[in-house]
């Protein structure tokens, strides 16, 4: 997949514009390690973005070498409370052509991410939605885990309350055993140790658990072991490090 040239693919009179879904990094690592040059060039020339966090978006634009001053780039901030009407207003200029970028806080926009609403509304407005190659923590962890990559479910966060969390982890384990389905979840980084302990306490000994930490960075660490094996070893260092947990029951 290559980036549009300076004139092609940008829309024009009578043509709808394009919403570009551009992945951003998962941690501290050189941009060339996780984003193809063509996508870097595309991101560098866009002058309007929708992003969860303007500060993070500007840091990304600095990484890719934005061709105009950062203060001249329009960044609309997307939250869970942003209503559909506001998103339509942001996208309205694309009805007459042009381009806009959508970025996430980390990884691929619109995958387990509020940006999905933006893509959905863009389709409803008849705009072109273009996904671009880049890092997805969900897919990278699944690739490396050795667990079932055909049947899987990403749940986001488990309940915080310990008893409710244990019930939910076990319910997902039952689903996994019935359907040979990999279960995937994340936790707020400072709660990773508690989540790891909860998984060891809730799951059966022969269930396989993958811990995928700090993907694409120098601290990347990925291991898949049975719960019984995990219990026989010291706990990994997960404190304040982005981590995905994946498990598959027999």
From TrEMBL:
One of its GO terms (biological process) is methylation. Residues 1-21 are annotated as: Disordered. Keywords: Methyltransferase, Transferase. InterPro entries: 4pyrrol_Methylase_sf (IPR035996), 4pyrrole_Mease_sub1 (IPR014777), 4pyrrole_Mease_sub2 (IPR014776), rRNA_ssu_MeTfrase_I (IPR008189). CDD domains: RsmI_like. GO terms for molecular function: methyltransferase activity. It comes from the Bacteria. The keyword Membrane does not apply. This is SAM-dependent methyltransferase. It comes from Bordetella genomosp. 9.
């Amino acid at each position: 997949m290559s980036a549009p040239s300076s004139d092609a693919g940008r829309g024009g009179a009578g043509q709808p514009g394009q919403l570009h879904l551009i992945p951003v990094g998962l941690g501290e690592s050189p941009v060339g390690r996780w984003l193809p040059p063509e996508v870097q060039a595309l991101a560098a020339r866009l002058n309007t973005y929708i992003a969860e966090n303007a500060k993070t978006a500007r840091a990304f634009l600095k990484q890719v070498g934005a061709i105009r001053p950062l203060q001249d780039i329009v960044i609309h901030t997307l939250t869970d409370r942003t209503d559909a009407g506001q998103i339509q207003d942001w996208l309205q200029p694309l009805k007459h052509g042009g381009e806009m970028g959508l970025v996430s806080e980390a990884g691929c926009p619109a995958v387990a991410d509020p940006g999905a609403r933006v893509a959905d509304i863009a389709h409803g407005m008849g705009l072109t939605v273009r996904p671009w190659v880049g890092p997805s923590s969900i897919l990278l962890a699944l690739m490396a885990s050795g667990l079932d990559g055909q049947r899987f479910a990403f749940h986001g966060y488990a309940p915080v309350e310990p008893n409710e969390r244990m019930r939910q982890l076990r319910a997902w384990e039952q689903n996994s055993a019935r359907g040979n389905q990999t279960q995937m979840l994340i936790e707020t980084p400072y709660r990773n140790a508690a989540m790891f302990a909860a998984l060891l306490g809730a799951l059966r000994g022969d269930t396989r658990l993958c811990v995928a930490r700090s993907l694409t960075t120098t601290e990347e660490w990925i291991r898949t072991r049975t719960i019984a094996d995990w219990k026989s070893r010291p706990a990994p260092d997960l404190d304040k490090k982005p981590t995905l947990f994946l498990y598959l029951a027999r």
